[in-house]
Each structure stands twice: as C-alpha cells, then as structure tokens.
Amino acid sequence: MEKLVNLTPHEVMIFHIDGHRYTIPPSGEVARVRSEYEPCDNVEIFSTVKCIYGRVSGLPAPENGTYYIVSGLVLNVLGNTRPDCIAPDTGPAAVRDEHGNVIGVRRFLRGG
Known about the structure:
By secondary structure, this protein is mainly beta. Helices cover 6% and strands 40% of the residues. The protein has one helix spanning 72-78, and strands at residues 3-6, 12-15, 21-24, 32-39, 49-57, 66-69, 85-88, 95-96, 102-104, 108-110.
C-alpha cells in the first residue's frame, strides 16, 4: 500500500469509498510556495497587486510508494512535474458541516 505524507499544516480527513474515515495528521513539514507582490493600478479607492509565484519549498525528494499531500496552490505551481503530489479536493465533492465548512474529502486532485 502507498504511504501518504501530509505536507499541509492541517489534518486531512478522508471519507473513503469503503465507508471508513481516515485521518492523516500533519507530518510537521509544510510544503509552501514563495510569492512576491507587484503593485498595479488602483481600482476606485482600492490598491491592487499582482501575485507572482516562485519556487516550492519544504517538498522532499520523490520516494517510491509515497504520495505527498500538499495544498492546491502548491499542486498548481508544481503542474505535472511531481506526479507523487496530490491535493485534497475541497470543491463540490468535499464533505461539509452544517455551516458549509470542509470537514473532509472524498478524493484528491493530481497535477497536470
């Protein structure tokens, strides 16, 4: 079976198709994206900036049989360069509480 390493700062609850729930605790390491902000023109009375994403840090080298759970932003920046990285699908398929907050996921997103 594959190993899952959670590189987010939050525990991830998986609602598996077999009916079980699995909780993947944070590993203590967090994969992050460096970002810089460039000022743009103001819109009405508000200032605007352009966000420029840089390198991903905190991501271990690929390891056979291991999948790394990362944020959606990290996954988007990686594109298809790291097929061993997955992100929780917090879209319409997510499990939510009565207030609409995500409490778990049914599936993961892959880069590409």
